Amino acid sequence: MRTSRYGASNRKLIDKAYKSKRAGDECPKCRKPKLVRKGNSLWVCKSCGATFAGAAYSFESETGQIAKRLMADYAKGSA
C-alpha cells in the first residue's frame, strides 16, 4: 500500500505489518519454517498441519513474547 496519502509514519507502519505477515515463521511443533497465515490470528503449518492462534500480522506479538517469558520465569521460581 504505497500511496501519497495518510503520512509517512502510517505508510511505514503498514509496510512493517505486511513484511512481518509475509515472513516465514517457524512452527512450534515441527520446527520447520512452514507457518502461514490463514486468517486473522489463525496460523497453520504447511508441513505438519497444526493450527495455532497468534497475533494478527505475525505469529508472535511483543506482548505474547513477554507473557511467555514471565510464565517461564514463574515456573522456574515455583519448582
Description:
This protein starts with 7 loop residues before the first helix and ends with a helix. The model has no long low-confidence stretch (mean pLDDT 84). The protein is built from two helices and three strands, in the order αβββα. It has a domain at 24-78: N-terminal domain of TfIIb, CATH 2.20.25.30. It has helices spanning 8-22, 62-78; strands spanning 35-39, 42-45, 51-53. Helices cover 41% and strands 15% of the residues. The chain has a three-stranded antiparallel β-sheet, with no helix packed on it. 6% of the residues are buried. Strand 1 (35-39) and strand 2 form a beta hairpin. The protein is of the alpha+beta class.
Structure summary:
The protein contains two helices and three strands; from the N terminus they run αβββα.
Specify Rg, calculated over alpha carbons.
16 Å
Helix content: 40-55%
CATH architecture term of the domain at 24-78: Single Sheet
Reported by name, the CATH topology of the domain at 24-78 is N-terminal domain of TfIIb
Note the quaternary state here: single chain
What's the β-strand tally?
Answer: 3
Low-confidence stretches: none
Q: What share of residues are in beta strands? A: 15-25%
Largest sheet: 3 strands, antiparallel
Q: Looking across the biggest beta sheet, what order are the strands in?
A: 1-2-3
What's the CATH first level of the domain at 24-78?
A: Mainly Beta
Termini gap: 49 Å
Write down the secondary-structure element order.
Answer: HEEEH
Basic shape: flat
Structural class, by secondary structure, is alpha+beta
Total helical segments = 2
State mean pLDDT (0 to 100 scale): 84
